[in-house]
Amino acid sequence: MSGDGTCLENRRAMSLEGSTPSPSAIYGLIDPRSGHLRYIGQTYKLLPLRLLQHISNAKANRKAHVYSWIRQLLLLKLEPEIEALEEFPTGIPFEELDEAEIFQIAYWKFLGAELTNHTEGGKVFRFTEEFKKQVSARSK
Asked: Is 75 or 140 the better-scoring residue by pLDDT?
């Protein structure tokens, strides 16, 4: 799922060229207790604003592993930290941003990061094999 939380059709409609309307980034949410990367997303918003959106979604009880993790932090009076993993100029095609997000998720998972992402990233909503196995095990 794309990291900016916006419906893909709306996101792409914002730019007739199919590119970002402002500088964009692939970002990571970091656990302040351990310093470990826990989530990777993409945005063309300022990073502090994107972090506030994640916190707001968690407080609104949105259903996703990343929001459950953020709620756990909030109960401890903590918040995730946000950090740019890659930055891009205005006008990068959305497809390139999607590819960068997919790469970053795969790269960090390869390194052993325990990410809360349930998809491989980008505009194609493909669940990871790990997530599919978890859902299958729960349904048995």
From this structure: 75
**Domain CATH for 119:** 3.40.1440.10
Residue 3 placed within a domain: no
> pTM for the full model?
0.77
Q: 34 vs 13, 104, 108, 113, 114, CA distance in Å?
A: 39, 20, 16, 12, 12
Q: For residues 34 and 13, what is the distance between their CA atoms, to the nearest angstrom? A: 39
Residue 15 lies in a domain: yes
Domain total in the chain: 1
Q: How far apart are CA 140 and CA 128, in angstroms?
A: 19
Rounded to 5 degrees, what angle do the CA atoms 131, 133, 2 make?
20
> What are the distances in angstroms from CA 7 to CA 12, 46, 49, 97?
9, 18, 17, 15
pLDDT of res. 7:
42
What are the structure tokens assigned to 108, written together?
A: 């960090």
pLDDT class of 110 with cuts at 50, 70, 90 = very high
Query: Per the domain annotation, does 2 fall within a domain?
Result: no
Range of the domain at 76: 8-138
